[in-house]
TrEMBL record:
InterPro entries attached to this UniProt entry: DegT/StrS_aminotransferase, PyrdxlP-dep_Trfase, PyrdxlP-dep_Trfase_major
Taxonomy, superkingdom: Bacteria
Family of the protein in this entry: Belongs to the DegT/DnrJ/EryC1 family.
Protein name, UniProt field: DegT/DnrJ/EryC1/StrS family aminotransferase
């Protein structure tokens, strides 16, 4: 093991503590710690402006936001989704008593493959839940056309897609709703948190009731079987601080992304995953695929990096369909998911975060290049 400082795949961006103190003082002075207080309201307004979306509802985490989005959309039956995602995507379906139907991914973007969706539609299909994997946009137009043709709703798991834009604006505007994660490892963080983006005021009002136990605005009438999904004032304050430095953070991520791509382009057997529809990217992750012409297997390279104090992630491995609660589903058969199965056996996400310095990036690249030449 290297005696140098370990490098992890990501680290939370933490501003100086003294800059957070005025926010804490404001919360203490207001005596409002949660339940949609001043910080919460300010962050919702700031995010609507920054992201260019009409309505946003903050949540205590992205998983609860996914669960609530499905509930707000009143979906029943089957939902077509991807096996190549974090398990919260599929778990949100089970929490709503929905049946996931897994469809293979596109070999370039690693997003849900529109060409496979129609064959999976049955009379019980109610919705599609695609994921903007690694922040790269799905083929939203193809998915919309399929949904419109069959009368299906579309809920985007946009956990990775904060700030991503296509040529029409924010990718979060697509579908009936889009769901963000503000977990500590994300491009934009509130420590723990998330949000639902929706199209109209009435839907936002319903979402806001559902995340507050189903209470109506008067605070005495419960009209929906909601839950407690509220974001606290301290989390909202941290989000406001994060938003102040988001452009500098993205610029550094972009610089790391560019260096990786430039230096790995000549390494045989290593391919860098690229999106193809984003006008503005957020550089949320840096996945590479370790192919058969690289001297080491994916897992061997993973271990080699660890030996040098570089802790990457095989993200997403295993597939959701390999977990016990999903593997018995007919759509979970590996034969139905050849692309996702192959990608899951080859992927490694390299470290990428604002505090990753040039020397550390050089260490990572050296291990990959030296292993290729061995």
């Amino acid at each position: 093991m290297s005696d140098r400082e370990p490098i992890y795949v990501t680290r939370p961006a933490l501003p100086p503590l003294e800059e957070f103190v005025p926010y804490l003082q404001e919360i203490w002075d207001a005596r409002i710690l949660t339940n949609g207080g001043p910080m919460h309201q300010r962050l919702e307004a700031a995010l609507c402006k920054h992201l260019g979306v009409p309505h946003i509802s903050l949540f205590n985490n992205g998983t609860q936001a996914l669960v609530t989005a499905l509930q707000a959309a009143d979906i029943h039956g089957e939902v077509i989704t991807t096996p190549y995602s974090f398990v919260a995507t599929a778990h949100s379906l089970l929490w709503n008593s929905l049946r996931p139907v897994f469809v293979d991914i596109d070999p370039v973007t690693l997003n849900l493959d529109p060409a496979r969706i129609e064959d999976a539609i049955t009379p019980d299909t109610a919705a599609i839940m695609p994921v903007h994997c690694y922040g790269h946009p799905c083929d939203v137009e193809a998915i919309r056309a399929i949904a419109d043709k069959h009368g299906l709703k579309v809920i985007y798991d946009a956990a990775h897609a904060f700030g991503v834009r296509d040529d029409g604006g924010s990718v979060l505007r697509h579908g009936d709703m889009s769901v963000l994660s503000f977990h500590a490892t994300k491009v934009f963080s509130t420590f723990e948190g998330g949000a639902i983006i929706c199209r109209d005021k009435e839907t936002k009002q319903k979402i806001d009731r559902l995340k507050n136990f189903g209470f109506e605005a008067d605070g005495s009438t419960v009209s929906l079987h909601g839950t407690n999904g509220k974001l606290s004032e301290i989390h909202a304050a941290f989000g406001l601080m994060q938003l102040e430095g988001i452009e500098a953070s993205l610029a550094r991520r972009q610089a790391v992304d560019l260096r990786y791509r430039q230096e790995l382009a000549a390494v045989q057997g290593i391919s860098c995953v690229e999106g193809k529809n984003e006008l503005v990217a957020n550089y949320a992750y840096f996945p590479i695929l370790v192919g058969p012409t690289y001297p080491l297997s994916r897992d061997a390279l993973f271990r080699r990096l660890q030996e040098h104090g570089i802790f990457t992630r095989r993200y997403f491995h295993p597939l959701i369909t390999e977990f016990p609660m999903y593997r018995a589903l007919p759509s979970a058969e590996p034969a139905n998911l050849p692309v996702a199965t192959k990608v899951a056996s080859e992927v490694i996400c390299l470290p990428i975060y604002p505090e990753l310095d040039d020397e550390q990036v050089g260490r990572i690249l050296s291990v990959i290049k030296e292993s290729a030449a061995a």
